[in-house]
Every structure is written in structure tokens, then in C-alpha cells.
Design brief:
Ammonium transporter, 4% strand, two-stranded antiparallel sheet, Ammonium transporter fold, Ammonium/urea_transptr, membrane
Length: 492
């Protein structure tokens, strides 16, 4: 967001303009330009949701393709509804506290919930003495909706092909309404309890990726692996991607959408400069270069792993691995530092992947990326930004909210990481285990084997088989031709 310095603490209400809107300053040309900028960033976040859908569409079996898209879209929208109902007000709470608003949480809830004036009135009718830059903040509501929609899509990815729709929808809604916003309040902004003391974030590393990573780990653990994922089963060969090309298209869309979405995670002050959301000094151009440096580092490391393991997935996930592994540092690091950290971070992602495989936890991308790479990225900001000024708010010159009164440190980054993991772990265990013990997490074996498209939507089974060709089932014939059969998906 952007806040003009003279508007921070108190604003004299301008007299109503004759023949014009009551508060014309709310709809100035400068604010209109900001609105367009943040609206485009919001659209790019929606492209990220679509990219996650395409990535998963290529990795699931054909018999689960339609249900994968439906569950992912519904989960994303439920997360978006959640942050609109109460979550955005929880985030705004930090600013109301810094501005000295009486009873800041209650006032934020009164203002920024669906029936509050801030979300029901046109910006030109809102007094800037009480609603600074109302239009920009309203557009930022949509930005937050798209932001947590990405989280809902990622959470769904952790339970692919086996978790029932209803518990997945409950998980996505609670994430968007309560847990993600509360961690945002603590860590993403400049005057939250942790960010005001020096904890630095840029792309929402703590609230989005680390919370999602912890919840994904709990979900994949409690739901258990897909049939045949680790142990042989006579009814199925096990899950294999049906079209990695779709996954590659999803990664390409992600690569185009992410830079502009990230640039929306900052403040722009005219004639002063661009600041990350924690109010550390930054630069628009440097952020763009850093994002591409993260791509380069992640893809190069992923390529080394892919060629070594003959698994193409790692070079593809090098794109998200690069920027997640540097997520708190993209606004403050130098491009060469970001490239090196992204390169190392991809190996952290791969190590997490290997650990999950040994533990037989069936999640090949969300936990390695969001928790493994995310934790590394949380500390990266403390490595490259140590000593940089941060926190507070524009125009405040003294007191605990003074502009840039705090310093970034590896210790505060570690504290924010521990606090986030604790909040995510406790809330995730209560919610996910509670759902498991009540309505259950997993679809029946029969439905899983025949496919969720048929089980949920009554579509006929696909005229092709989703299983891989078994080497033991292939017999040589005359010449160079080979004949074989595919393992049956079910046995009568």
C-alpha cells in the first residue's frame, strides 16, 4: 500500500466540494494510479491460483482431474471469503494500534467486516480523517482475498486424490479467516508485534508459506499416503502424473505472474521511494531483478538435481523454490545474494523431499517448498538484511512506532519462524485431527480406486488407464516390438 506522509496520524477533513464528491481527495489521480497498480497485482495473484491448479492437474491421474479443479477452486474461494468476513480486520488491527485508535481491534472489526462502512461505502463518501486512502485500502481487500486464495489452493495440493471435499473446505476457510490473518498481524506489515521489533518479511513468507507448510505436513500425515504410493498394492500400481506438460505450463504462468504480485507487497511514496511492507528501504527495480535472480538460482539447482535423479519435476519446481527460499529478502537483498540463496534453498527443498519420502508422508511439493524452503527463506532475510532499519510507520518520529526504529536480525527472524510454526502446529493439529475424528478426512478406498470424478460427479470412467506400464508385465515379441498390459485399477 501507499500512504502519503502528511496523512498518517491526523487529517483535517476537507470541506465538501461543490458539485463534486464529498471527499474528492479520496479519488485523486494519484490514488487512481495506485488502485490500478494494486488491482493488477491482485489479478496476478489469481493467475498464481490458476497456475497451482495446472501444476496439480498434470500431476494427478485422469480419473481425478475434474474433482481436483473443483476442490481447488472452491477451497480458494472459501479462504477468500474467510479473510473478508474477519481476517482483514485482524490485519488492520496493527495499524489502528499504531495510530492510537481507541479499542483498536473492536474498531477494526466494526469498520472492515462485510457490513462495516469501510466495505459498504464508496471511498469518496468516507472521511479521510477516519479512513485514510479508503479506495486503496478497499482494493487491498481484494488483494488479500487473492492472497489467501493462493493459500487455499496450496493446502488442497497436500491432500490430492484422497482427502474429502468437506474437511478440505473447512481447513481452507479457517486458514483464510483466522490463522493466516493472525500471523499476518504479527509478522507482515510494519507495526505488528513482531514486525515492529525487527522481524522482516516481504512476500508473506510466515503467514502464507510456513503456515501452509505446517498444515500440509499435518494433513498429509493424518490423511495417509495414497494407495500404492509407497507400498505395492494388487489393486493398483500407484499414483503417477498423467501429463507433466500441464505442470510445466502451470510453472510458466507462475513465472510470469509472481513478479507483479510480489511488487504489490510494498509501499510507494511519491518522490521518496519504494519500501517493503516492513518499511525497509528498497527499490522497485531491484525487486524485479531479485525475483528473476531467484528464478535463475532455483532452476539451476533444480536442473542439477533433475539430471542426477532423472526426475524432471525438480527443475520445474526450481521456479517457486527460488523465490520461496528468498521470500523475506527479495526487497532488501542484492541480486547476487538472492541468486546464491535461491541456489542453496533448492537443495533444502530437495532434502525435505527426501526426508518425507523416508517417513512415507505422501506430499512431494507443498511441504518441501513451503516448510523446507519457506523456513530457509525466513532466515534468509536476517542473513542479507542484518542491521537494516525497519518497522514503525511514516511520519511517526518518536515512541515504539517511530519510523524505522528497529533493525533486522537473524535472531528476530528465528523468533518469528518459531512463533509461526508453533501457531500453525497447534492450530493445525486441533483443526485437522478434530476433523479426522469427527467427519473424517479420507475418501473410501472404493472411491479412491475408481476415481473421484466418477465417485463425486458420476462421470464415466476414462477410456484410458491411469497406471504405469509394469516391467514384469511386458513380454518381448517378434522383432523389436514389445507387448504388455497395464495393471488393473481394481479387482472384482
Amino acid at each position: 500500500m501507499s500512504l502519503v506522509l502528511s496523512q498518517v496520524l491526523t487529517v483535517d477533513s476537507p470541506p465538501p466540494a461543490t458539485g463534486g464528491p464529498p471527499y474528492s481527495s479520496q479519488v485523486s489521480l494519484f490514488f487512481f494510479n495506485l488502485n490500478v497498480f494494486y488491482a493488477l497485482a491482485t489479478v496476478c495473484l489469481l493467475f498464481v491460483v490458476g497456475a497451482v491448479g495446472l501444476i496439480d492437474a498434470g500431476l494427478v491421474r485422469r480419473k481425478n482431474l475434474m474433482d481436483t479443479w473443483i476442490q481447488k477452486l472452491v477451497a480458494s474461494m472459501l479462504a477468500a471469503i474467510g479473510i473478508t468476513i474477519v481476517g482483514y480486520a485482524i490485519w488492520i488491527w496493527q495499524y489502528y494500534s499504531a495510530f492510537g485508535v481507541p479499542d483498536p481491534l473492536k474498531t477494526a472489526l466494526d469498520d472492515w467486516t462485510p457490513f462495516g462502512p469501510a466495505l459498504t461505502e464508496y471511498s469518496q463518501n468516507l472521511d479521510p480523517a477516519h479512513y485514510i486512502e479508503a479506495d486503496v485500502f478497499q482494493v487491498f481487500v481484494a488483494f488479500f482475498m487473492a492472497y489467501v486464495a493462493v493459500g487455499g489452493a496450496l493446502l488442497h495440493s497436500a491432500g490430492l486424490e484422497r482427502v474429502k471435499a468437506v474437511p478440505m473446505y473447512v481447513i481452507a476457510f479457517v486458514f483464510g479467516a483466522l490463522v493466516c490473518p493472525f500471523v499476518l498481524y504479527l509478522t507482515w506489515g510494519s507495526v505488528g508485534p513482531l514486525s515492529n521489533k525487527g522481524a522482516h518479511d516481504y512476500i508473506g513468507q510466515f503467514a502464507l508459506y510456513i503456515v501452509v507448510g505446517v498444515w500440509a505436513l499435518i494433513l498429509a500425515w493424518r490423511a495417509g499416503p495414497r494407495i500404492g504410493a509407497f507400498d505395492k498394492d494388487p489393486r493398483t500400481v500407484g499414483p503417477v502424473p498423467h501429463n507433466v506438460g500441464w505442470t510445466a505450463v502451470g510453472v510458466a504462468i507462475l513465472m510470469f505472474a509472481a513478479p507483479f504480485a510480489f511488487l504489490g507487497c510494498g509501499f510507494f511514496v511519491p518522490d521518496v521511494g519504494y519500501f517493503g511492507i516492513s518499511l525497509s528501504n528498497s527499490g522497485f527495480g531491484i525487486v524485479v531483478i531479485n525475483v528473476f535472480a531467484a528464478y535463475v538460482g532455483g532452476v539451476l539447482a533444480g536442473a542439477l538435481i533433475s539430471y542426477r535423479t532423472r526426475n524432471p519435476i525438480f527443475v520445474l519446481i526450481g521456479i517457486p523454490a527460488g523465490y520461496i527460499s528468498t521470500g523475506t529478502a527479495l526487497d532488501i537483498g542484492r541480486p547476487w545474494e538472492i541468486l546464491v540463496l535461491a541456489f542453496i534453498g533448492m537443495f533444502v527443498v530437495y532434502g525435505t523431499y527426501q526426508l518425507l519420502y523416508k517417513l512415507k508422508i505422501d506430499d512431494k511439493k507443498i511441504v518441501p517448498l513451503a516448510l523446507g524452503g519457506g523456513s530457509f527463506g525466513a532466515l534468509a532475510g536476517g542473513i542479507v538484511g542484518s542491521g537494516d532499519k525497519t518497522g514503525g510507520f511514516f511520519g511517526i518520529t518518536e515512541g515504539k512506532y517511530a519510523f524505522q526504529h528497529a533493525e533486522i536480525s537473524i535472531g528476530m527472524q528465528a523468533l518469528a519462524l518459531v512463533v509461526t510454526i508453533a501457531i500453525a502446529g497447534i492450530s493445525g493439529l486441533i483443526l485437522i485431527v478434530g476433523l479426522e475424528k469427527t467427519i473424517g478426512l479420507r475418501v473410501s478406498e472404493e472411491d479412491e480406486l475408481r476415481g473421484l470424478d466418477e465417485a463425486y460427479w458420476g462421470t464415466p470412467p476414462p477410456p484410458y488407464v491411469d497406471e504405469i506400464l509394469l516391467e514384469s508385465d511386458v513380454a518381448p515379441t517378434s522383432g523389436s516390438h514389445r507387448a504388455g498390459r497395464r495393471a488393473p485399477e481394481t479387482v472384482s
